[in-house]
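Technical note accompanying the year-one report. For the benefit of new consortium partners, we illustrate the data format agreed upon in the data management plan: each record pairs a sequence with a structure-token string. No post-processing was applied to the example shown here.
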Amino acid sequence: MKKFTTVSRLVVYRTNAAAVRQPVGVLAQNRQGVYFQYDADYLATQQSLAPFTLKFDASVQLAPKRPHHGLHGLFADSLPDGWGMLLMDRVFRQSGVLPQQLTAMDRLAYIHDRAMGALSFEPNLADMAPDTQHHLDLFALGQSAQAVFAGQSDQVLGQLAVAGSSGGARPKALIYRCPTQLDLISTQAHPDWQPWLVKFTATQLPLGHEEGRCEAAYLQMAAQAGIDVPVWELIDAANSSRIGQINQTWLALKRFDRAAGGGRVHMQSAGALLDADFRQPSLDYEDLIKAGSLLCRQPAVGAQIFRRAMFNLFACNQDDHSKNWAFLCDDQGQWSLAPHYDVTFSPLPHGEHMTAFGGFGQKPPLKTIQKLAAHANLSWPQAQQVIAEVVEAAQHWQTVAPTVGVSTVTIQMIQQTLDRVAAENAALYRG
């Protein structure tokens, strides 16, 4: 194997909405763990990036061993999971480095400036990816992603490795799209090129090549329920001769962690902010509402989270783990709730949500939801109105799904589950 020296020190930077890059502090690692210390100038001029878990002072702060790979949650958010980790491991293997040799610090150095949010890390190990071109065809990238995801290829295209730095277990890419030729993309920011996240499909996914169509329908239903969702569009990959299968449609989401002209917006998941492990049920909507209200200093945020919680319940979006909730922080230090993302039909084993409703993973009792509404500063009549709007939006599935091309079989299968969930929770909107 190739001799590999692990990274023991990283300088952390933040890029603001005006594309100005400023040192945040230093990460250092020894046998005891990973330590972080804020930069003195950053302390003097900026605000805390992790108000609940990091002291905003000049002290040297040791990261907890769990649940973030031995990192502070603030920085662990910059690491991918699932799909991104698979690509990263493949790249290091192709360079003669075993994944077991890597520390979380090495992985941050590899991510460099390609993470979601505003943070970047130096030194830069991103040059290990064999990225020999700045421009690439979107369909070629998708084809490469599908081959790797299906286990049909061990070789990772350099551009795919560079683009695959987002979270989630499914094949996707963070790219910039040419405004005049939308299938021409880059992993590097260009003037006037727009930042998007593209979710590819695969036959191995639960909904196969209908994943993107179903999520698009859910985004429409969530918007009808009064929920803020990302800007999205469907990309018809079937029109490309390079894609050898029919009926492929990919979902593209405009990134809300990027600003015009190369600017960036600080983003933190609820898992990072609250040290909650997204791999297991470790969060409750009561905690999320309380944290969001405190962080954003806006009582309305609690009501927004309650509305999303009810939509997740009635739309059977059970993969509502702590990394699928995020908050944005502007350059003045004001936090806000990020748009509702990764919202789709996602039933889990035993029908339990990853985020609990006052301790209940499914079928929460009426009194529990009434208590949850009170935490969100909603009177019960106000909460009932929210639930009624959510239930009405969820009932639009059979109307919305055909407009984005979901098949009749899939529409009927999902409708059966939605009917069952509505019946199980009828006391919440009939009481």
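Partners are asked to follow this layout when depositing records. The chain has 15 helices and 16 strands.
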